[in-house]
Design brief:
Its cofactor is Zn(2+). By secondary structure, the chain is of the alpha+beta class. The protein is built from 23 helices and 11 strands.
């Protein structure tokens, strides 16, 4: 974590937005905490103290700045580049597990005792899981208060609070305003439909949307995903219901429109959308590392800020990875679309052409393998995968241990290094996953003068660690495949 005092003071004085979300500045004289890029005049260094999380600031008695709104900072990149206990716990908390299952449920998913989880979070973040979840609830509540006309009682329960009194007390404590005062200060907008929210998802600049949205649009499964009116749209399977999201790139944010069947899913829907677009990445650190290789540097300079397109549903992506083995992108979409039509849950989309949720592993586990239009060996791979996912023998969610998940995937019939690594990169979120056997990667490496054999390329890529998944995005950019370009 970035808590070296000298570096923190320097970042605050220069209003460096790259460090937003990495740490928070608490001002001892005003009892307010800010993001490093806060536009106000920086306080004197002796009046600054630094915390690794907004929850730690709140627990220490500081309230959020009304100018820079530190609760809306991008998330820390730490939680998406690591696979240790704290990082996995933070990903689960962002996914709403503490609100749904409590701290014991969080600990059970991680395979540790409640006490051990609490101790490690407190040591690194200055706050335990309950405080971290409380800070997230406060942020969700503020979002609902400011962007909807919902009655405050509905806002309270949708944000995860157990009572209206707790909701009121928390909002006042964190923001120094009552919920009604927050709503009065919010900009007025046109009336929205119930359950529909228009949000701005922040990110650290730069962000290159071409490969990110180009890949999602080019591989979109009909009925589940589509590119429409300059936005990537898809259906979401959520803990309390379902949703539809539209995501569109803007110069300084991602425009997000969410339609939810149950507003209690707002926090997890936002978390999954951010994960899908890799919005908590630190592109400056990534590009700096990759630019150190003279053969990669021109690619980075040509289009800095490439992200790794990920997924909102890890099991879905694993299934689609198997469907895409040794076939074209178009053929993989066709196979997936047939599964969706036959086994997906139908839903209505008044604003577009989305028709289904992608079928769950449980729904796919009961299908007749003979109905799959693929070679027999790949049918075995498919049925084994969905059965393991449905039985809970294979975990690919945000709580997954990356090394263990890789080992379990390699045990499955028909799973080789390419399939495992693409799942590690897109589903598990491993930023160092690499695809040295990928034909496009090998072709790009040869054009650039890099080694093109898998073993030699892997040896050269050791210098790109821990960001080899991002190197994959830059190497793919040398190809003329449509996944590299933003649709029009």
């Amino acid at each position: 974590m970035h808590l070296d005092r000298e570096h923190c003071v320097r970042a605050v004085r220069s209003k460096d937005a790259r460090f937003d979300g990495w740490f928070f500045t608490a001002v001892l004289t005003t009892r307010i905490y800010c993001r490093p890029s806060c536009p106000v005049v920086p306080p004197k260094p002796e009046n600054m103290t630094f915390y690794p999380s907004a929850a730690a600031c709140q627990q220490a008695g500081f309230r959020a700045c009304k100018r820079c709104r530190p609760d809306t900072s991008p998330g820390s990149p730490e939680w998406n580049r690591r696979a240790d206990l704290v990082a996995r716990a933070m990903r689960l908390i962002a996914d709403g597990v503490v609100d749904r299952e409590g701290v014991p449920g969080l600990a059970a998913r991680l395979g540790y005792s409640t006490r051990q989880v609490e101790r490690q979070l407190l040591a690194e973040l200055g706050a335990g899981p309950l405080a971290l979840a409380r800070a997230q609830r406060a942020q969700t509540a503020r979002l609902l208060v400011e962007t909807t006309a919902l009655p405050m009682a509905e806002v309270a329960f949708a944000a995860g609070f157990s009572s209206i009194r707790t909701f009121n007390d928390t909002v006042r404590e964190v923001f120094a305003l009552s919920p009604s005062e927050l709503r009065a200060r919010a900009p007025r907008s046109g009336a929205g439909t119930p359950g529909a929210l228009a949000l701005r998802l922040p990110f650290r600049a730069p962000l290159n949307p071409s490969n990110l949205f180009g890949h999602l649009a080019a591989t979109a499964v009909p009925g589940v995903e589509e590119w429409r009116d300059g936005a990537y749209r898809r259906t979401l399977r959520l803990p309390y219901g379902h949703g539809i999201v539209a995501l569109a790139p803007r110069p300084d944010h991602i425009a997000c429109r969410l339609t939810l069947s149950d507003l209690r899913d707002l926090t997890v829907a936002i978390s999954r959308c951010r994960r899908l677009l890799d919005l908590d990445a630190d592109p400056v650190a990534v590009d700096e590392r990759l630019r150190a290789d003279p053969l990669l540097a021109p690619l980075v300079d040509q289009g800095p800020g490439r992200r790794v397109p990920r997924t909102v549903d890890e099991a879905e992506f694993a299934v689609r990875a198997v469907l895409g083995q040794q076939v074209s992108t178009a053929a993989a979409r066709t196979h997936a679309a047939r599964l969706v039509t036959a086994h997906g849950k139908p839903l209505d989309d008044p604003e577009g052409g989305l028709t289904h949720l992608f079928p769950s592993p449980e729904a796919l586990a009961g299908l007749d393998p003979e109905t799959l239009a693929m070679p027999r060996t790949r049918r075995t791979t498919f049925t084994t995968l969905v059965r393991r996912l449905a039985d809970g023998d294979l975990h690919l969610g945000v709580e997954a241990d990356w090394a263990e998940a890789r080992a379990r995937l390699l045990e499955l019939p028909g799973f080789g290094p390419w399939t495992v690594d693409v799942i590690a990169m897109r589903a598990l979120g491993d930023p160092d996953a690499f695809l040295p056997t990928d034909l496009g990667i090998r072709r790009a490496a040869k054009e650039l003068g890099l080694p093109s054999t898998p073993a030699a390329l892997t040896a050269r890529a050791a210098n790109w660690r821990p960001w080899r998944a991002y190197a994959v995005q830059y190497l793919w950019a040398t190809d003329s495949h449509p996944i590299n370009f933003l649709p029009v």
